[in-house]
Amino acid sequence: MTGPLKKAAFAALALMILLAALPAGAGMWEKIGGAGDQYVVAGNTLYGLFPDRQGVAVYDAASGKWYKIGGPARELVGGGEKLYGISPESGDIYEYTGSGMNWTKIGGPGAQFAVAGNTLYGLFYPDRQGVAKRDPATGTWSVIGGPTRELVGGGEKLYGISPESGDIYEYTGSGMNWTKIGGPGAQFAVAGNTLYGLIPDRQGVARRDPATGTWSVIGGPMNELVGGGDKLYGISPVGGDICEYTGTKWTVIGGPGAQFAAYGPSLYRLSVDKKEIYRYAE
Question: pTM (2 decimals)?
Fold first, then answer.
């Protein structure tokens, strides 16, 4: 996303000033829980890691209560319909069975894991010299790619960042075949089935048209993009506010947070001090 896109981004710089002046969106934030270290969404269900990482909890939206479903975890991995957890001792990855406190080991350590569709992918540990895919039907792992700096999941597609050039590639879905679809970006995120990227200097947001493969600038400066849901969100460099992309414009819908998590129509915000979790309702 260099050249024309970067030049076009300067035309969007005025959005930085506009964002600062925008009123908050029409929705509201509802507190649904207390302190946590990390939150992820899988199957439109919210899961959280205890502040000391000594337990995993699930939020029951019907009752508004939290229930413990697991012990210590280094990190949670959400996306698709499944929840995964990384062992703090071995680095092995476990899948939550969906009932009680029951987890099943499904793989060894990975430098990173990502979910696309309902399929789990991982980067070789610790050298990132290969990409592996777990077959949801058989549970077996197979190598589908070479050295990769980072994986980008979301929607139905998997993307990978080249460790040399920073270019982004899309996995074709078969064998070891990947297709270059864009240049370097400061960050990439998926919302719906559309890929978005931050221009390297974070002075613009670009969208890739799924039908034509072309990139176009849709916004000005952002610190970070938040994907995973039906909509795209961005963290404004003005105060760290969270902004929603409506398809034609950006609207401030909330203040800063330590973390944001989105899936389907839902968006969650962890307070800056990590003591409260909120759900956004339009």
Answer: 0.89
The span from the CA of 233 to the CA of 83, in Å, is 22
- Cα separation, 122 vs 57, in Å, equals 24
The answer to whether 171 and 142 are in contact (CB under 8 A) is no
Q: What is the pLDDT of residues 235-279, one digit of tens each?
A: 999 999 999 999 999 999 999 999 999 988 899 999 999 999 999
DSSP codes joined into one string, 90-121: T--EEEE-SSTT-EEEEE---SEEEEETTEEE
Encode pLDDT of 114-134 as tens digits.
999 999 999 999 999 999 999
Classify 230 in phi/psi space as left (phi over 0), alpha (psi -120 to 50) or beta: alpha
Task: Enter the tokens of residue 253.
Answer: 């819908």
Domains within the chain, CATH numbers bracketed: 4-281 (2.130.10.10)
Cβ–Cβ < 8 Å for 34, 275: yes
